[in-house]
Design brief:
This protein is α/β, with parallel strands linked by helices and about 750 residues long. The chain has 23 helices and 26 strands. Helix 9 packs parallel to helix 11. The longest helix has 17 residues. It is globular and about 75 Å long. The protein binds beta-D-glucopyranose (BGC). Beta-D-glucopyranose binds next to loops.
């Protein structure tokens, strides 16, 4: 949305004009009001606007109140209580010289009080509309507690499940992540930033943070510009195009230059190429950390490099407020850079309507956990669960089953069910898997024995009780995976297998000989080949949030049908990482149909192709994969024309039929490949997707339109262009299969 259209959304423009609301003002007027304010501000007040504090005491300490009165703070983050936000805001508006409001930011990453599935899970829904509703739920709840701004969405493409923050992202694919980026920005920001229930979004972490070497958090990222533009930047550009109000610069050094001091990504691309006019906030301490990186000599130099690069607001460290004044006075830095930063910040504050908006004195409890919010959370949890194995139709379970053994440390663990970044989530609100299963079957038919206290627990003490429960039951449900604190920030892992004694527990349970269903709760792709081989079904539910219990119970008993598909490739072993579907072909590709090295034979490869001597080269589960309780058949691929001229369009259509016995939704995917170009192009790239609902026996034609601009890529001169030539196109159930067609793009 353009600035003009956003500003013209006041429902009653004449009232807004009467009230002197700047939000309804046209852009020129807005800029004039900013000019007027800027002209009255001292350098200290300007630097105050550029400073975000982390610790606001509760109740607000006199020292902080004094700082706010003096205009020394522009923002605070993660303030615990609405009452404290209201008090600080009253002080800023009524007692500071210029009455400039504070902006309160918070990590509302996947819900506020109603905790939604983690973002990686949400992406497995392939349902941007529902994800937008989820962000709206989060925004409504957060804004009711006086939060103006969320540090979300996180748009870091990650192709390395060792990196714990993969949980917070939207998968490995830039096309899909871009769709979700826009959806989340729309959800958080609503029809306009000053609309009731809207908060400012923040596209983070700009940029390349998800490419941390070796998957170790905060580690360096080396990304050639062509890859940066092709893969890592698009979700940010999509957020920008959706009108995102703010952007957060990342922690890592990108090609040797810290993202927070990176003039190329911040000034040239974000401001120059994309005309972003919101503000950029640093990540936590990331300005001063440029000294630790070895990129700045001291905090003053860090301030200089941050502001030059275009970071407007400094989160928590105080290089700007402590050092910039002297640098301006010493002629080391042009005061215009300071004014520009303050202008960007004030613009967002005006757009949010903060100058006029009363702060809620306390959280509006009625806005939290509303039935319709819980329903969105439940639906998201249903749509994001991915069925990875279902031998012999082990699922769904019959409700007339005799007894069900519920085993595993994650069956009744509210915090683990919520996942990482749930500062405002409350354990007592969570409907756990166990509780929901008891609701479904009645408590007497559910035999619960966790076997382990936590996922990391390595003691076998609880095994005998678990085995006894399995013996007494008809089927065992095994809730295993990761504790919530194993994913998220600073939670990198070098092993991706089941932690603690979970594998041993699964083996003991399987030995009993009853059907076993594994429900995996985790913030990342895990490697669980041996487990999958021993159980009848695997349902991957991630950290599904507050409503995870009812959602997963409905899937297990067939009241809902699994439809989620993976948005990240699952490796067979950590040694295959990084592994992703949109890789280049290489000059010696291995082929699933070609000669294969038998895994385990460490010598004499049969073929000099790109594979391993000790493990199959293919992933355990490919991107886009997910099963259903029904089966789908794809047939009759049609490409509307064998050739299209540059600038033209064609349609690609296939019939998709539900060949099973239950109504279900299938996520139909469109991929292309450019067979020869001035730079090698991936073996497949996602270009479209659709959720299609089909009754048993029903067949629908699914049509996609492809224009030549959809086939554009960055060439070696960093120009986005489509090149003529032959393309393959697939309509497919996942990135590994599908019906293939061909067309040619002509000059
Ligand atoms: C994280 C950000 C987060 C910020 C504020 C940092 O450590 O990297 O994602 O928004 O803290 O809590």
């Amino acid at each position: 949305m353009t600035r003009a259209s956003r500003l013209s959304r006041c429902p009653l423009p004449f009232l807004c004009a009467l009230a002197g609301s700047l939000v309804a003002a046209p852009p020129a007027d807005l800029e004039r009001r900013i000019d007027q304010l800027l002209a009255r501000m001292t350098i200290e007040e300007k630097l105050g606007q550029m400073s975000q504090g982390a610790f606001l005491g509760s109740p607000v300490a006199e020292r902080d109140r004094q700082g706010i009165r003096q205009g020394r703070w522009g923002s605070f983050l993660n303030v615990a209580r609405p009452e404290d936000r209201a008090e600080a805001q009253r002080t800023a508006l009524n007692e500071s010289r210029l009455g400039i409001p504070l902006i309160f930011g918070q990590d509302v990453i996947h819900g506020y009080r109603t905790v939604l599935p983690i973002p990686l899970a949400q992406s497995a829904s392939w349902d941007p509309e529902l994800v937008e509703q989820g962000a709206r739920v989060a925004a409504r709840e957060a804004s009711s507690a006086g939060i103006h701004w969320t540090f979300a969405p996180m748009l870091d493409i990650a192709r390395d499940p060792r990196w714990g923050r993969i949980a917070e992202g939207l998968g490995e694919d830039p096309y899909l992540a871009s769709a979700f980026a826009a959806a989340m920005v729309r959800g958080f920001q609503g029809p306009s930033l000053d609309a009731p229930g809207s908060i400012a979004a923040c596209a983070k972490h700009y940029v390349g943070y998800g490419a941390a070497e070796a998957g170790r958090d905060y580690n360096s990222a080396w990304i050639p510009e062509i890859l940066l533009r092709q893969v890592y930047l698009p979700p940010f550009q999509a957020a920008r195009n959706a009108g995102v109000a703010t952007v957060m610069s990342a922690f890592e050094d990108l090609n040797g230059v810290p993202a927070t001091g990176n003039e190329f990504t911040l000034r040239r691309i974000l401001r120059g190429e994309w005309n972003f006019d919101g503000f950029v906030v640093s990540d936590y301490n990331s300005v001063v950390e440029m000294v630790t990186h070895g990129f700045a000599a001291d905090p003053g130099d860090a301030a200089l490099k941050g502001i030059r690069a275009g970071v407007d607001m400094e989160m928590t460290s105080t290089c700007y407020r402590d050092r910039l004044k002297a640098l301006v006075e010493g002629g080391k830095i042009d005061g215009k850079l300071i004014d520009e930063a303050v202008r960007n910040i004030l613009r967002v504050k005006f757009r949010l309507g903060l100058f006029d908006k009363p702060m809620p004195a306390a959280a509006d409890r009625g806005a939290l956990l509303a039935p319709e919010s819980l329903e969105v959370a439940r639906k998201l949890a249903v749509e994001s669960a991915v069925l990875l194995k279902n031998d012999g139709a082990a699922l769904p379970l019959s409700k007339s089953i005799g007894k069900l053994a519920v085993i595993g440390p994650l069956a009744d663990s509210p915090l683990d069910q919520m996942g990482c970044w749930t500062g405002n989530g409350v354990a007592g609100d969570v409907r756990t898997f166990l509780a929901a299963l008891k609701d479904t079957l009645g408590p007497a038919r559910v035999l619960y024995a966790p076997g382990l206290k936590t996922a990391k627990d390595s003691s076998h003490d609880g095994f005998p009780a678990a085995i006894e429960a399995v013996r007494a039951a008809d089927t065992a449900l095994l809730f295993i995976g990761e504790d919530a604190n194993m994913s998220g920030e600073a939670r990198s892992r070098a092993y991706l297998d089941l932690p603690g004694a979970e594998q041993a527990l699964a083996e003991e349970v399987a030995k009993v000989g009853k059907p076993v269903i594994a429900v995996i709760v985790a913030g990342r792709p895990l490697t669980f080949h041996d487990l999958a081989a021993k159980v009848n079904a695997v349902l991957y539910v991630w950290n599904p949030g507050t409503m995870g219990g009812p959602a997963i119970a409905s899937l297990l008993f067939g009241d809902a049908v699994p439809s989620g598909k993976l948005t990240v490739t699952f490796p067979r072993t950590v040694g295959q990482v990084p592994i992703y579907y949109a890789h280049l072909n290489t000059g010696r590709p291995a082929s699933p149909n070609g000669p294969r090295i038998s895994p385990g034979i460490p010598i004499n490869p049969l073929d000099y192709t790109s594979q391993y001597i000790d493990v199959d080269f293919t992933p355990e589960y490919p991107f886009g994969f997910g099963l259903s309780y029904t089966t789908f058949e794809y047939s009759n691929l049609r490409v509307s024309s064998p050739a299209i001229p540059m600038g033209g369009k064609l349609t690609v259509t296939a019939d998709v039929a539900n060949t099973g016995k239950v109504e279900a939704e299938e996520i139909v995917q469109l991929y292309t490949r450019d067979l020869s170009a001035s730079v090698s192009r991936p073996v497949r790239e996602l270009k479209g997707f659709r959720r299609v609902r089909l009754a048993p026996g029903e067949k629908k034609s699914v049509e996609f339109t492809l224009g030549t601009s959809d086939l554009a890529f960055y060439n070696a001169r960093m120009q986005l262009a489509t090149e003529p030539g032959v393309f393959h196109v697939w309509i497919a159930p996942d990135s590994d299969r599908g019906l293939r067609g061909e067309f040619r793009v002509t000059e």
